[in-house]
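Title: Prediction job returns without error message
Component: structure pipeline
Severity: low
Priority: P3
Assignee: unassigned

Description:
Job completed but the reporter wants confirmation the result is attached to the right record. Sequence as submitted:
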Amino acid sequence: MTQGVPFILKEWKYSSVELADYLKHVISHNDTMGIYASNQLVCGAATHVNGIIGMLNTKEGFRRKGYAQMCMRSLMKRLAEKELIPCSAAEICNPASVKLHEKLGMKISHTVDYIGSDGKIIAEN
């Protein structure tokens, strides 16, 4: 059930070894979606404990094939079937992510800066 943990730990930009337990919890208890190609997980997204879709990533060599869009649409559909309103986070400074979210019909509702436990900005929008 937690087979996505190694993928996220390796592929996600904000991943760290310290996140392994959190990722196990998220994948075990929250909605997730993965796309397999060539018998390997090549794209995945998970819903954080706060309900926001995140950790979307596609493995290098499998990008620009529509996997991220397929993964997000499937996860959004699953959430909608549970009568939840799908929401996601994207970095404004990442044009590819913003464009993907626009293709999915999402709109920017607000911008935030993410601050780490050490008080430093992790991601700035």
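Comment from assignee: result matches the submitted record. The longest helix spans residues 67-81.
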